[in-house]
Structures are given as structure tokens and as C-alpha cells.
Amino acid sequence: MDVAVPAGEITSIIGPNGCGKSTLLKALSRTMPLRGGAVYLDGRAIAEMPTAEVARRMALLPQSPQAPAGLTVGELVALGRYPHQKGFGRLTDDDKRIIDWALSITHLGDFAARPIDALSGGQRQRAWIAMALAQDTGLILLDEPTTYLDMAHQLEVLELLQTLNRDQGKTIALVIHELNLAARFSDWMIALKSGAIRGAGTPAEVMTPALLREVFGLDALIAPDPWTARPSLVSYRLAGEE
Fold first, then answer.
1. Residue 88 scores a pLDDT above 70
2. pLDDT exceeds 90 at position 28
3. Which CATH number, 1.10.3720.10, 3.10.100.10, 3.40.50.300, 3.30.450.20, labels domain 50-137?
4. Residue 89 pLDDT more than 80?
5. pLDDT tens for each residue of 156-209
6. 3-state DSSP: the chain helix, strand, coil percent, rounded to 5?
7. CA distance 112 to 103
8. How far from 233 is each of 6, 207, 229, CA to CA, in Å?
9. ∠ CA 110-97-106 to the nearest 5 degrees?
10. pLDDT score at 242
11. Angle formed by the axes of helices 121-134 and 93-105, to 10°?
12. Residue 160 and residue 206: Cα distance in Å, rounded?
């Protein structure tokens, strides 16, 4: 497999269950050992980079992360500063400034003292994103950040990621199942099936009836979204159904 995540853009990784989306993200983030090949970050093999350096340059939000009971939003976000801490691990003024920024940009400043368990689904996901932001990395990887969220909270999370990309220049790659949201918010899409890349390109190049039939086994009706002009999945059925 040869795959690239374009710098400064939002990349969505799509495909059916079990096709290797999460495995690809784990390989890119060095949380799973490779059987062969290499992953490069800005031209350097990450296998040869110290762990702390990788953590200062790349943040990973895994699927369905769990926080210890009673942990507050502020405490969770502060964990993002761990790769930058030295000595006795005390938070510096710079650490506190970045934590405050991460809480502010995710609209969680008023929730810093609230336990994670007391948050709504969308708020909880924003708290985890805030922790990733506190790492202050140029690259953020997210594994299904919209899973289990209702439509409003899905938009809330993806609009936040879009803002981070546009205003902060963050490179973002995420695994996502909602094809219309992937097409709406992504600059680049990667389609996987059975551990292989079946398509990579802009949403217009990937969201085609032919590729969706190959990857998902669906006959799909695609039309431009009237608000965004991005390709949108209007209707679909199993391939071959009459």
C-alpha cells in the first residue's frame, strides 16, 4: 500500500467495515508495528524518531476513547501537554496558555471543572479533540470522531475540525463512515476495500457511482449538494437489485 496524506488539508478515509481503515490510521501513527515498509512524516521515517518527538508532531484520537472516572475536562486537556513537559512534569505558563486556547477554541472554557462523564456526546468528543489540540501538533489523526453522535453533533465536530484546518493550518486525517459528510468537509478522500486502496482523490473523483459500487457493492445515485456543490449520495441500493 502506498498512501499519502496531503499537508494542510482534511483527508477522509472511507470503506466498509473491516477493510483496514483503523489499521491504516494505527500504522500511520506508529501505534501498530509494520510488517514491512515505512511511514514518513515530513520526509523522516517515524520508526526512527523518538516517541516524544512523534507525540509533539502528531496527535491521535482513537475510536471510543475512555477517560478515568471523575476526570475533569481541564485535567483531560492538560494531558495533551505531557509530550512537552520536562523535569517534574509541572505545567508551565506556556502549557497553561495552550490548554486555555484548546478549551476556548472547542467552546469548553466554562466546562473545565466539569467531569467528562457529565458531558453530552458532542461535548465529550470536543473535550477529546481539545486534548489532541493541547499537544500542539501539525497533524491530527482521528478514528471515527462522529460515531454514535446525532446529526447536529456530527456537524459540530466536523465544523470544528474544518475551522482548525482553515485557521490554524492543521493537517487532519479521519476515518469516517458518513459519506456525505466526508465529501462535504474533505479536501481529499481515500477509499479502502480488503486492505487495499481502491481510490484516492478529491471528493468529486472518489464519490462516483462506479467507485462506490466497487468499494461498497452499491448502486448509488450521486448529485451535487445544493448548498455546497459537493457530490452527495442521494439514494442507494445493493448492487444488482431491481
1. no
2. yes
3. 3.40.50.300
4. no
5. 889 999 999 999 999 999 999 999 999 999 999 999 999 999 999 999 999 999
6. 40, 20, 35
7. 8
8. 24, 8, 12
9. 40
10. 67
11. 150
12. 24
Q: State the pLDDT at residue 22.
A: 93
Please give the grid coordinates belonging to residue 201: 482523490
Domain 1-48+170-241 and domain 50-137, same fold? Reply is yes
- Pull the grid cell for residue 8: 494542510
This prediction's pTM? 0.91
| Ordered DSSP codes for 135-149 | T--SEEEEESTTTT-
**DSSP E strands: which ranges in the chain?**
10-14, 40-41, 44-45, 58-61, 139-143, 171-175, 188-193, 196-201, 218-224, 231-238
